[in-house]
Amino acid sequence: MKKHVLLTPGPTPVPPQVLLSMAQPIIHHRTPQFEEIFAQMSENLKYLFQTRNDVITFASSGTGAMEASVVNLLSPGDKAICVQGGKFGERWAELCRAYGVEAVIIDVEWGDAVSAEEIERVLNKHPDAKVVFTTLSETSTGVATDVKAIGAMMNNKPAVLVTDAISGLGGMELKTDEWGVDVVVSGSQKGLMIPPGLAFCSISPKAWELVEKARCPRYYFDFRKAKKNLDKNTTAFTPAITLCIGLNEALKMIREETLEKAIARHARLAEAVRGAIQAIGLELFAKKPANVVTAVKSPENIDSGKIVKMMRDDYGISIAGGQGDAKGKIFRIAQLGYMNEFDILTGLSCLEIVLARLGYKFEMGKAIGFAETKFQETSS
Ligand SMILES: Cc1ncc(COP(=O)(O)O)c(C=O)c1O
Fold this sequence. Notes:
By secondary structure, this protein is of the alpha/beta class. The protein has 14 helices and 13 strands. β8, α7 (176-179) and β9 form a beta-alpha-beta unit. The model has no long low-confidence stretch (mean pLDDT 97).
């Protein structure tokens, strides 16, 4: 018998109470019943996003919210700075080009993080750039970006700061208003603990000024249309009703735990994983690791895809492999959303068994021992 354990950086496990809330018969969306759920959900999203600004919800995967940011803030021929240090940073530039926006690329080596100084240097060279696109947690490399420092640097600069927090939100600190992040983009299948299918954008007053001027074609993802409906606790088009009901439940769980404690839990799990990996002689891929996903260099002569496949096919435990140039070279273990110490211990234990089977030489039990000791020393 195989038990399935999801330790991937999206989708992530969905708590039973959230699953149960989504098992109820569907209700119609143009009703006071749904409007109340949507209002509660939208209000609790503000707590999660740490903002007083509206948070717009779309029925799409996270990329839909990224596309929404591009089309609502920019016009063809405009210039935008895109930080590109992994697969998801690259997506910002791809989206800009798709709409005729000139993408000024800041190329960051995979595994490394951009600095606020580097962005400032490029901004000074391109003072006409209207937007700076960044990624809080670059899921493909496991790197965290210092969005706080970037926000501070961009204070009083005309350009709008956009951050992709699709994998970071709920698991890493992101003080949207305090740090001056104009648009935060996220998705449902990661720290928000529900299945894929919802995407979100928080929008600052400074960003709204661009929305009014933007001329990129837009219809489904029009912020103005979404905002008009949000003000009436509804959506322009049929919402993903069931997912909204699930999200409402998941957000209540986050409020109950408190965001502060949820972030501390992710940090604690991530510290244990990082230490465990190093305890068996493996190296981290990220120079500035994010707390929601740990990217690990595969031992020499072992294709990381083999580790991922054996863990999944032989033991039912899903982790992620490398993407793009990192394919075969790294594997990624998530500490994201509805996960606790024992999910992590299960994953590390399976990793040790699989590494041993694949011929990697190390002292069995060292990874798990490190994590157990860490968990014993620090309370949850
Ligand atoms: C940081 C980041 N950005 C963007 C995306 C794309 O989101 P989606 O696959 O939901 O469109 C992901 C999903 O893996 C992500 O982790």
